[in-house]
Design a protein that fits this description.
Largest sheet: none
Strand content: under 5%
Distance between the termini: 57 Å
Shape: extended
Order of helices and strands: HHHHHHHH
Mean pLDDT: 79
């Protein structure tokens, strides 16, 4: 595979992961139980029409996910809908093993502490702000690194992640020690 195709593939995967992250981050933390079909807003029912006949037989978790997705879709601008459609089409064209890799990366990202997630979002934003030429240069530099240097870099990254997790755990413990509940709220807000 030539460098340009590889760069385009990496850009596509990064864009897809970003899109999935944005969708995941827009999901409310505590979802309501998937409602009765008639209780759904008319525009949400319209989006979910393919599920109308079997809505009541779907598991509650699946109904929740579908309802949230339809509600997000209804709120999207036409441009956002076109972009979502384009990314979905890219996803469908990916080989199954590549989709699995994306899912695994997303899960690893989700398990990171919020500060590390934010740091990675900012790094991705900086990468996206670079000119295509500068991005290619960075990717070329990475590809030219000997395997031991790549491994050294990855090890430093893993250590930084571990420190970040430990720091988050220390902050959590400090909150609890200062009278917060297990949910991280101060005792007076329980």
């Amino acid at each position: 595979m030539n460098k340009r195709a590889t760069g385009n593939k990496i850009g596509m995967v990064l864009g897809l992961v970003t899109g999935l992250l944005l969708l995941a981050l827009s999901v409310p933390a505590a979802a309501e139980e998937g409602g009765d079909w008639q209780q759904l807003a008319p525009e949400v029912r319209q989006v979910l029409t393919p599920y109308a006949d079997r809505w009541d037989t779907l598991p509650a978790e699946r109904r929740q996910r579908l309802q949230r997705g339809a509600e997000r879709w209804v709120r999207m601008t036409p441009e956002e809908k076109r972009e979502a459609g384009r990314k979905l089409e890219q996803w469908r064209k990916m080989p199954p093993e590549e989709r699995q890799q994306v899912r695994e990366r997303f899960e690893r990202f989700r398990r990171l502490p919020p500060e590390e997630q934010q740091r990675l979002r900012e790094a991705r934003e900086r990468f996206q702000q670079m000119t295509p030429e500068r991005r290619r240069q960075l990717l070329d530099r990475w590809r030219q690194l000997p395997p031991e240097k790549k491994e050294e870099f990855k090890e430093r990254f893993r250590e930084r992640q571990e420190r970040s997790r430990q720091d988050a755990g220390d902050r959590w413990q400090n909150r609890r020690d200062l009278g917060g509940s297990a949910a991280g709220r101060p005792a007076w807000r329980r």
